[in-house]
Amino acid sequence: MRLFGKKALIGEDLHDWIIENFDWVESERPSWWQMAELIRPTKEYFHAPGGHDHETALLVFEDMKRLLGTTQPIELEPLPDLPDELLHEYGRMSDTAGQYWDDAGTPLITYNPKLMRRPVVFINTLAHELIHARLSPVVDDLPGGEPAHELATDLHAIIAGFGVIQLEAAEQAGWAGYMSQASRAVALAEFMHRKAIAPEDAFAYLSKRSASWLRKALAAY
After folding, report:
1. At what angle do helices 163-173 and 181-195 cross, to 10 degrees?
2. Is 100 left (phi over 0), alpha (psi -120 to 50) or beta?
3. pLDDT greater than 80 at residue 83
4. Local structure of 73: helix, strand or coil
5. How far is Cα 138 from Cα 132, in angstroms, rounded to an integer?
6. Can you give the pLDDT at residue 86?
7. Distance CA 189, CA 164 (A)
8. Angle, helix 208-218 to helix 163-173, in steps of 10 degrees
9. Within 10 Å of residue 118's Cβ, how many Cβ atoms?
């Protein structure tokens, strides 16, 4: 839904694709939609203690799998320690932050251990990679198919409830990634509208600029 006379944050084709993906999940994977809630970076959702080591990362990983209802075996391993400047290269977050590997045997997610210094960014990275695992069997069935796979992975993390975390993580990390902040905000607003979530439930966990994007997107409802 858009307000008459208001300039849309994103193009019509992109907006329609976002809506089509929401509709696809509701109709084709209703269990995903039913369990999705607005995940916030609080102890209500994440039970792992503070820490920067791999043992802590594994505990956060277990929290993430629980929140997503992931039951398949997936391993988690740290990448070699990379220079800080690589973490800010536009369009290379899948290379430097984390990757999903499913060539043979048990799927593997790798992550940059420096991300443990920024919990919201780390959680967002795990969400993206775990959504890869979720979508892997249905890539060709999704609106946009294989060519939109990476973009769809970001979007489906939002559809799974990680919109606040993704919007804020992109702001904290200083990168745009596969979706723009405008398109993230539109997707998060759509999620909140469909789930009847009060705006304050999201704004309390967003920085000023992230909240501004969401406020503009919510104005269309």
Report:
1. 160
2. beta
3. no
4. coil
5. 10
6. 52
7. 10
8. 140
9. 15
In degrees rounded to 5, what are phi and psi of residue 51? Answer: 160, 160
34: left (phi over 0), alpha (psi -120 to 50) or beta: alpha
Q: What is the H or E stretch that residue 4 is in?
A: none
Q: Listing from the earlier edge strand, what are the strands of the sheet with 108-111?
A: 75-78, 108-111, 98-101
- Are residues 173 and 191 in contact, defined by beta-carbon separation less than 8 angstroms? no
- Tokens describing residue 180: 């723009």
Whole-number Å distance between alpha carbons of 62 and 148: 28
CB 156 within 8 A of CB 26: no
Residue whose pair of structure tokens reads 């993430």 in the numeric block: 64
| pLDDT for residue 5 is more than 50 | no
Res 174 pLDDT > 60: yes
- Is 149's pLDDT higher than 90? no
* pLDDT exceeds cutoff 90 at 194: yes
Q: What is the mean pLDDT of the chain?
A: 89
CA distances to 3, 66, 111, 188, 204 from 199, rounded to whole Å, are 18, 25, 32, 11, 9
